[in-house]
Amino acid sequence: MKVKSKQTEEKLNGVFYTPFEIIDFLTSWITDKQQIFNVLEPSAGDGRFVKQIVELADKANVTAVEIDSLECEKIKAIDNTKVINDDFYNFYENIKDIVIKYDAVIGNPPYIRYQFLSEEQRNYQSDILRRNGMKPNKMINSWVAFTVASIELLSLSGKFAFVLPTDLLQVSYAKELRKFIFKELKEVTIICFNNIVFSGIQQDVVLIFGIKRDMESKKH
Ligand SMILES: C[S@@+](CC[C@H](N)C(=O)[O-])C[C@H]1O[C@@H](n2cnc3c(N)ncnc32)[C@H](O)[C@@H]1O
Question: Which residues line ligand 1 (CB under 6 A)?
Fold first, then answer.
């Protein structure tokens, strides 16, 4: 088992910023064909997804959640953006029962192992999974809960675009998530890479994007 004190600060907080080619690609898809007004970035880092969204979609208002207050200072300079310096687990707990839904959710969530989450985060993570029909367990990494909560917070026909570890396609603890994704989203596209995308970490990632099913398409 990995010991918390030996992990780098970056790794513990899942801080690996998305390369700009991927930012351009996913934000272009999100802003293509339909107007988006209300966008969520659940772990915004330095705001690189946010900045590109507001440049491409002039009617978009972005809610950017980020746990690191120094990074939040950078996001504050971006137009049409509400910056929330909070733990996304906490943000979700505060809004989950209010009817706030987003036209689009975009980002690259932190990849934090269960053992490195706080007790409170573990409890909130379990709540997110249970509310969405999944069984929580101690294998589940933060990116699973961020994905489930983000899809839950999407409006019908809203667009979802995330950078996720290739574990999504492989590991058994993500099996329920794979089912959830295809139950909740249509027109799902997954893009894999031949090379490592993030320099400095050995983390293979995929891009996944799709559209939240409306009632009609859920019946089929
Ligand atoms: C993989 S980085 C991605 C940042 C940005 N979305 C990007 O794509 O460049 C993950 C971000 O999540 C933030 N983070 C970690 N735990 C968080 C939490 N519980 N709630 C909100 N943000 C969190 C980290 O500070 C980091 O900025």
Answer: 13-18, 43-45, 48-49, 65-68, 71, 87-89, 107-108, 110
